[in-house]
Input
Amino acid sequence: MEQLGYLQQYVPVLVLMLVALGFGLGALLVGSLVRPKRPYAEKLMPYESGNPPVGEPRYRFSVKFYIIAMLFVIFDVEAVFLYPWAVTFDKLGLYAFVEMIIFIVILLVGYVYAWRKDAFTWD
Amino acid sequence: MPDIGAQLWLLGPEIVLAVFAFGVILLDLVIKEKSVLAYLSIAAALFIMFTMFGRQGTAFGGMFLADGYGLFFNFIFLTSLCLSILVSLKYLPVERINFGEYYGLMLFATIGMMVMASAGDLIMVYLGLELMSLSVYVLAGFMRQSTRSNEAALKYFMLGAFASAFLLLGISFTYGLTGTTQISGVAQYIKDNGLAGNPVLAFTTILYVAAFGFKIAAVPFHMWAPDVYEGAPTPVTAFMSVGPKAAGFAVIGRVLTVALGPVSSEWTGLLIVLSILSMAVGNILAISQTNIKRMLAYSSIAHAGYALLGVIAGGPEGLASMMNYLLIYTFMNIGAFTVVTLLRTEGVKGEDLSDYEGLSKNHPLLSALMLLFMFSLTGIPPTAGFMGKFYLFVAAINAGYLWLTVIAVIMSAISAYFYLRVVMYMYMKEPGTVIPVQRSTAGRVALMFTGIAVLLIGVQPTGFIQMARSALAGFGI
Amino acid sequence: MNEILFGYLSFAILALSIAAITRKNPVHAVLLMIVMFFHLATMYLALGAEFLAAVQIMVYAGAIMVLFLFVVLVLNIREEEKGERFASGWPLGISLAAGLLILILIITDKVLTGRQGQFTQAVILQETHTKAIGKLLYTQYVFPFEVASLILLVAIVGAIVLAKKRLG
Output
């Protein structure tokens, strides 16, 4: 049952998640129990600085967000590769260092490309 | 790590191509004249083609195998890369897609194929396949304003993702069963532990056949091919009807005939079904097509069926005939697509069969070459297509598949109907409107080169088949 | 204890996945998927693959989720809710999936495990998963690692080619 002992290390994480969930739900629940409820039409209207609301609340976003999100995913994955490298670097030495430099330089090509193609500017 | 320099030398072709690909991506940022990038890419491919041979050995603990087999396929990939780029030069401005990324993605796709053909490990098969596929998905959707092109990219991507999932499931089962992902190691483990007949291994075989079937567009995994071939930019269609298909076959050779070689009886039956269905469905559905790109898509499905005969026959003779056929197919199919591309000019699509009516009156040389390619695709002597089929059929008969060869011959006879219909349109119909042709020197070079190759191999067929046979020395079958 | 945990996780992953693909509102589907990703991460943790669990949270629940949400926001949700949830070919899809499932169920009791490498579960627990991965990835698996960077580069170029308005 070595496995079980290993999983027990993560019990605090589980507790944290439950507490976070409980705090959010609890606050909403307590709020709905103690606050006075006297709704009328104007009060239920979305607040837009006192003006009557105009148009749909759910509008379509620009596809520009997609590029940003995509680049975020790619560089996030690049960062993930750095973790195992960092913890084993002391044992692997120069060889691993050169490998990682090549890896980063290849992605740097992509970074320069994205930068020069104005992928990071909002035109 | 043992002698890194020697290992990098074995990887030379891939490294040089990758460096050129980075160069193309970066140069594109500063250069206005995009044809420079095209010539740079061709120069890289030619340089590698002339310097790559003679490499032999394994690198990175068996992840990468430099052998004649891989190099022969590299030759096919680089040839198709050069030809497709030549064809693209004047086509891209007509479609308003003259962007430098096009050439960069072509180079990355080729690196992916080369990694696949030289993979010594199932992980490398998967990574090479993804590198190739991702690049080709984007290339298929390169005409960003065209809904057809977008649809092509999306369809190809969705079904390609399915194929990747099958491949990954197959690899994980293989790893679970044998404890290794190394191709030679898997074969060894199956032999040593008597795994033949294990139902899990049989299931794994099905998964591999499905995954590779998608990549070579064999029936029943062909659904994407007609729409994707039609929607993609024509030079990209030419490229992906040859390169990724050949890469798929290269991997079939490595994974099925080597890794799963000890259980060949389990996948041979599956491939026979795939081959018969591909030949039948491809050739019969091609008859009713009026769009030439769609027709060539179905034809490409049928040709996957023919080439599978070589894998089914197996052994050095079967594999060599398959490799030889794929090389011949590269010349004749890109040749045919070059003609289709040249008919695309400002304001004229030139994709419809009726556009070929009376073409010989206005463009005699172009029509003569199209005739040559159509004869070759049908398999009429003295063209290369005939010799390619001849070696395939001989290999299949020698392996005891006479009945399968008879089916293939009958299907070839059916295919004559739609290939020769194009010839009939060009030579026996009166021209309607005059169809202009692109004034593309590069396109003409590609046309001349493929035309000469198709004729030359048809008359002098022994060179390439000998090359393929000697490439298989030490392949391990 | 381990069996109960595994049973709960696999049931939850299946149920959440089915719930996610049957929602008509894409935002709800995405939210269900986040919960599913957390269960999947816990599953990896239970198998002793802590690095994989962390990656699952970082990349999937973090980055991929953002990508999904942005894509959902690009859609017109009103229109999406009106349409049919599944394409017309779904009976074929279900029968293919069912066939695959039956095949897998048939073969499950025939699964033999191959030879064990040097990284047994005990070794990984003792050494920590991240270190074990680092040791393999940067020695034996260098070549795949570098090819992976090419794939990421193609993804960058591809995303910009397909979605950037002015490319020239």
